[in-house]
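During the no-cost extension, the postdoctoral fellow (Dr. R.K.) reprocessed legacy sequence entries with the updated structure-token encoder. One reprocessed record is reproduced below for audit purposes.
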Amino acid sequence: MARSAGGTTRLLMVFLLILSCAALLLGIWLVESVPSQAAEVFGPPAPHLGLMQRWNLSLRLLLAQDALTRPADPDGVERKFTVELGEAVDAVAFRMEDEGLIRSSEAFRNFLIYAGLDTGLQAGEYQLSPAWSAVELAYRLQDATPMQIPFVVLAGWRAEEIAAALPTSGLTIAPDAFLRAVKRPAQVDLPEELRGVKRLEGFLYPGTYELKRDTDVNSLLALLTAEFAAQMDADWLAAVEAHGLTLEEAVILASIIEREAVVDEEAPLIASVFHNRLQAGMRLESDPTVQYALGWQETAGTWWKNPLTLDDLRAESLYNTYRNTGLPPGPICNPGQAALQAAAYPAESPYYYFRARCDGSGRHAFAVTFDEHLQNACP
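Re-encoded structure tokens follow.
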């Protein structure tokens, strides 16, 4: 009986030893396997995490894998989300869950700590979508660079000046690609009213546009021309036609008015001078048309040479309205609302001449005859 009891004890000890070894092996497997599986799904952990912290977070992430990798709303759209300066990670996570951007604030916070992104959370405004996973959202919050940026087109800019603003705008559109598309807009989805236009100079409506950083050249031009088309209501088109102008001719005239009128309220009176000259068969003799023809001035660093010399006024170009009667072959800039309205609704006046006043106000002195025009010259 004693030997039988001893044998049972030995068997129990062997069993316990085997069980202990199995538990040890299982523990080793869990210690190695859980972080390995987490790394496969969520990427490597932050290097500063200790062994137990890394294992604990890895297990938590695996258990919450669905909440972290599936979007809260696959059909959701982007919306503005602001991270305040000094706002705690927990507070950001709770707000994101409340606003339906993520499924679980706890899982989101654990991932931020696991990936070492909790310390890189930046204050700022973001465009975030619930159609993105929590993992993607975590990385988006590391860059406070706005997803949308303002892009400004000033009234009176020619296409080259718009192109020159692109490199510092935050957009990825190359100036050369922009100018090529302006000259040959075959790939641009133009508004129906502009589909016969061969060049887009003059039809790029000035204003401030909120654009996504990845906006391409064709999308930008489609937006600018769509905004231009939105300004052309039936009354404006009828007024243009009543003056015997086509749409493109009205834009050409507006572009000249834009460059001549320093003060918007003078635009209708300046327009009346050009309308009067066109009806009388006189040359427009507008300095900005010569400036456009001369192009870039390396020494002065401008597209608009000023002052012009007598030799400049003799420049051989179809755009030179000192040499050619009627309108130039195309717009010389991209006019704004005041100039477009003035081209269609000029003031009624007897004037055929105008020149800048000598007081530096930007206003003009108008004259009926050339002799009066000469008398308006500065001393």
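Strands lie at 79-83, 124-128, 148-153, 207-212, 353-356, 364-367. The longest helix spans residues 2-42. The remaining legacy entries will be reprocessed before the final report is submitted.
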